Amino acid sequence: MTKQQAAVAALLPCPAVILTAAAGERRDAMTATAFFVSEVPPLLSVSVAGHHLTNELIDESGEFVVNLATPEQFEMVRQLGSTHGRDLDKFEEFGVATELSERVGAPRIAGSYASLECKVVGSHPAATYRVYTAEVLAYVVDTERSPLLWHRGRFFSMGGQVG
Ligand SMILES: Cc1cc2nc3c(=O)[nH]c(=O)nc-3n(C[C@H](O)[C@H](O)[C@H](O)COP(=O)(O)O)c2cc1C
């Protein structure tokens, strides 16, 4: 991919999320982003590179959690986005605090703005990624916190309301 092509994708402002996935004894957490698909039913999509452990665990379990990160979790977001679950247990290595999910096997990340427990309803390959469409089965939100955003390779907190 040329630098110019990569720069186009980076123009989209995105939520910085942490995907958690688990199958049997195995689990992983990776930084990603997520996109709105439908309000009713509540559907979203995520795109996961084909070689990631997270991808394998989602395919095996058909589930994952989208944890919307906060500005306070910025360091963890960088750590989980630059290391691989096939090499180390990221939860142990970075002291990631988790909570049990209500409807899925993958854990929630404690301290997130929101955790959306998802069941895969469809997937398809796109370039070197697999795009998952998923239904949100349950969620928790902490309205005292705010989401972390990612834009043009940099992280931002939410600005003020304009409308
Ligand atoms: C802000 C940010 C967003 C990212 N978004 C994605 C994404 O949407 N899909 C993806 O496959 N990787 C994404 N990555 C890269 C993965 O988080 C990274 O490759 C990670 O090491 C994969 O972990 P794993 O091998 O344990 O699954 C992102 C990284 C950062 C820092």
Q: What's the quick description here?
A:
This protein has helices at 3-9, 53-61, 74-80, 90-93, and strands at residues 14-15, 17-23, 26-32, 35-38, 43-49, 63-68, 98-99, 108-109, 114-126, 129-141, 148-151, 154-157.
In words, what does this structure look like?
The structure is a single chain. This protein is an alpha+beta fold and 163 residues long. It has a single domain, classed as Electron Transport, Fmn-binding Protein, Chain A (Pnp Oxidase, Chain A), CATH 2.30.110. Helix content is 17%, strand content 44%. The chain has four helices and twelve strands. It has helices at residues 3-9, 53-61, 74-80, 90-93; strands at 14-15, 17-23, 26-32, 35-38, 43-49, 63-68, 98-99, 108-109, 114-126, 129-141, 148-151, 154-157. Strands 3-2-6-9-10-5-4 form a seven-stranded antiparallel beta sheet. Strand 4 (35-38) and strand 5 (43-49) form a beta hairpin. The mean pLDDT is 96.
Summarize the amount of helix as a percent range. Answer: 10-25%
Q: Provide the CATH topology.
A: Pnp Oxidase, Chain A
> What order do the SSEs take from the amino end to the carboxyl end, as H and E?
HEEEEEHEHHEEEEEE
Quickly count the domains: 1
Query: CATH superfamily name?
Result: Electron Transport, Fmn-binding Protein, Chain A
Question: What CATH architecture do you see?
Answer: Roll
Rg measurement, Å: 15 Å
What is the CATH domain class? Mainly Beta
- As a percent range, the share of strand residues is 35-45%
Using the alpha-carbon principal axes, give the shape.
globular
Low-confidence stretches: none
What strand order characterises the main sheet? Answer: 3-2-6-9-10-5-4
Give the tally of β-strands: 12
Structural class: alpha+beta
**For the terminal residues, how far apart are their CA atoms?**
37 Å
Q: Mean pLDDT, nearest integer?
A: 96
Which distinct ligands sit in these coordinates? Answer: flavin mononucleotide
Main pleated-sheet profile: 7 strands, antiparallel
Please work out how many helical segments DSSP would assign: 4
